[in-house]
Each structure stands twice: as C-alpha cells, then as structure tokens.
Amino acid sequence: MSRRRPRTPGGTVATVPIARLGQTMNGRTYHSVLSYRLVVSLFSVSKPCPACSRVFPGDIFGDHVVSCAGSVGIKHQHNLVYDTLLDICYRSGISAGREVDIGLVDGHGGPLRPTDLLLYSWDRGRDVCVDLTGSSPLTQTGMTRFVPGRVVVDAAQRKCVKYRDLCMATGYGFLFFTFSSLGELDTDVVALLKRILKFSMS
User: What is the pLDDT of residues 15-44, one digit of tens each?
Assistant: First the structure.
C-alpha cells in the first residue's frame, strides 16, 4: 500500500519504493533530487561535475549534474527509449535489426559504430538506418538563449551531417530519432512514430 506524500511543485512524488524493481534511492540522492524539484540551490560555490569533472560556474541548481552525458541517468534514458522503440516495431510487425553493422567508415577510413536500428524495406524497398540520440537542454548553464525544442533540432542536424550522406552512398536510407530529457521530439521523429502507428493499425 502506498502512502500519500506531500505535494511539491510539478505534481506528487508517487513512486512506491520497491527495492526489487530498483525504485529506491539513498539519502544523499533523495536530498539532491528533492532540492532540485523544489528549486533549492544545491551548491553555494561552483564545483566540478562528479561524472565529467568539468566546472560550470554559476550552476548552483545542479542543472548540468542531473543531465551530464557522463552520468548513468542519461544513458539509461537512451537505452530505455531504444528498447521501447524496438519493441514497438516488433509488436507492429515491422522488420527491424538491432545495432547492425553496415560497414560505414569515416573520412579517414576508420570504422563507424553500427547503426542503432535498421528498418528493413522501410523506404520503397530500401533498408533505412535509424540513429537514436538523447540530449538535454540543461548540459550548459546560463540559459539566456534557451529555446524550447532547439536541442533536438541541433542534434538532428549534427546526425544528418555525420551519417546521412554515408548511408546513402552505400544504398541505405537514413533517419534520426532525437529526443531530449524534457520529453521533446523533433518533428521528423513525430512523423516516424505516426507512420509506425499507421503501419500497426493496417
């Protein structure tokens, strides 16, 4: 039986602490998460990030720390989205391969990592590579030029520059799947999900 917890800005902390499901946290972590949720400063002076050791002046609320690419949390979120997307494809009857090596090389002849997801015969009979990228708009402090959704657009542009031409040169299509830690999705990602939905319904 769950117990009611005091309301905090943004909703209610309603997760039941179940150790076997990994739904627990130690006192230090709970203090940090609660302080961040209540917009209480975590640091009085600038300190290095425990994950990447970089110092972000003025980051008293811990924006970088909670979204650092070197921490476990952001990687876990990427893997969770990845596994969910792959499961949706399987359940929808879409033929997809996981981490398929299609032999891509960079400009110096070095091998690039396998594509995250390969959708077979997705684009008029052509196999299409899908690259998943999770980003956070809070990886830098001083958000004076913050624009909602900008981080997923920037990530999509970087991926297109790096992979699209290489994939097309070897006969593959290319799609990106960019999302942010705040739940933002690129418009092309939304279009892909809608097509998957139509495929599953038909």
Answer: 566 676 666 767 766 777 777 677 777 777
What's the rounded mean pLDDT across residues 163-185?
87
Where residue 178 sits, what CATH number does that domain have?
3.40.1350
Residue pLDDT, tens place only, 95-127: 999 988 888 887 777 788 888 899 999 998 999
Predicted pLDDT at 126: 92
Burial class (CB in 10 A: 0-12, 13-18, 19+), 63: buried
Do the domain assignments include residue 37?
no
| Residue numbers of the domain that contains 116 | 69-201
In a domain, residue 194? The reply is yes
Number of folded domains in the chain?
Answer: 1
Domain assignment present for residue 24? The answer is: no
Domain membership of residue 61 (yes or no) is no
